[in-house]
């Protein structure tokens, strides 16, 4: 999902259609962007202040520094700030986070005189408003300020990842958590302002980006509360409740449920999948992807829990016989698959998710799930169902070639 931006100001109402300063700035920025794209492409990625491409970094920083100083007092301040953030977003897309941070987002935030305090240390709403919005949230530059704060936060995060991608250093983890907390604080202030709903949307993207990385590294417990907050914000903003954002809301819901699974709280994962989104997704069957994500989460738990015997109940062990001669579905597991999913692709995805244990440590030997006979039977049935689906797909492919 791509972040959204605020509509740019129409400068013609200040100087008319023929404004030489505006035209000159646009030309110089266009040349700078072409230069950055060319350098970025030739170096096969972003260049940094330290390394063999040090000269290119210095040159680009000097060009941008001179442009901003040249036009700062020649154009309306609001338009000048818009150009700062526009170039910052462009540099962030090129993964030139350091340049975007110091020459764009940081330059915009210099007006608030926060050199003596790190924005990550601002944790109270009143403190936040007194620093950045002393004149209230109805000021002309409110949207730009929120935009710059979000941009600075995500650039800080990317710089942390560049230096410590696995977050092995405790200080790196602390910085990431501080950035998440600050992004949540921004969204707390923005949420009542319906006209700034695009900032809520962007904030959820930034939070998801950071939390997804934490989940991959096995820190789902730390990411959970922020993903849940992002989901609640999407539900609390009326403009973001439209069909257009349904797919993104579903991704956030699925991430929350995955955190539950990673923390071994399967019941809450299933309940969240049902309560958060199934009600309105069921009424919009055209959104197959959204419906599929939630169905997979429910299946992941239901396929095992329905076969577990109640505690305290003694019953003889029954041997499960796997017969290939019977028509599909062969057993209760395949029946549940056929009931919940249409098509072999969706069924195979559900099987992969059900047999995957995200919180299991790979180097530790042992069963992936509790040592219960019923669980092992379900796993065997899932594996056999997956093998049969792959075999059927292979036959179809061969038949097409013939």
**Helical segment count:** 16
Principal-axes geometry comes out as elongated
Series of H and E elements: HHHHHHHHHHHHHHHH
- Mean pLDDT across the residues is 80
Number of strands: 0
Q: Beta-strand percentage?
A: under 5%
Low-confidence regions:
279-286, 398-402
InterPro entries: CFAP54
In short:
InterPro entries: CFAP54. With 402 residues, the protein is mostly helical.
Structure report:
- This protein has two domains: 14-42 and 52-280, no CATH class; 285-309 and 318-400, no CATH class.
- Helix 11 (246-262) runs parallel beside helix 13 (288-305).
- Helix content is 66%, strand content 0%.
- It has 402 residues and is mainly alpha-helical.
- Residues 279-286 and 398-402 have low confidence and may be disordered.
- InterPro entries: CFAP54.
- One of its GO terms (biological process) is cilium assembly.
- Pfam families: CFAP54_N.
Name the descriptors:
mainly alpha, CFAP54, disordered C terminus, 16 helices
Give the helices and strands, then pairings.
Blueprint: H1 12-15, H2 20-42, H3 54-71, H4 77-93, H5 97-109, H6 125-132, H7 142-163, H8 170-190, H9 197-216, H10 220-236, H11 246-262, H12 266-282, H13 288-305, H14 332-340, H15 344-355, H16 373-401
